[in-house]
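Subject: sequence -> C-alpha cells, single chain

Hey, anyone have a minute? Need the predicted structure for the following. Not urgent.
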Amino acid sequence: MEFSFPRCRKCSEGDLVPLSDFGSQGASIEYKAWVCTNPSCLYNIKIRNGDIIINEPISDGSLHQYRGSRS
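Reply:
Had a minute. Here:
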C-alpha cells in the first residue's frame, strides 16, 4: 500500500501536507495545520484555540527571530 497526501481541493495541483507546532505550554500539537504544496496556491487549514481557520494569510518565516537561550 502506498501512502499519499490528499490533493488540494482549491487548486488540484498541489498536495495538502500536515504541519505540527508546540502549544503555549510546550506540548506537541500534531497536525495543527495543513498547507498546499503549490507555491502559487498556499491554501491552508489551521486549528487555533479549538477553532478551524481556513485560508489565513501565510507570512515568510525567514524574518522571524529565533527565541533560543541567550548567551
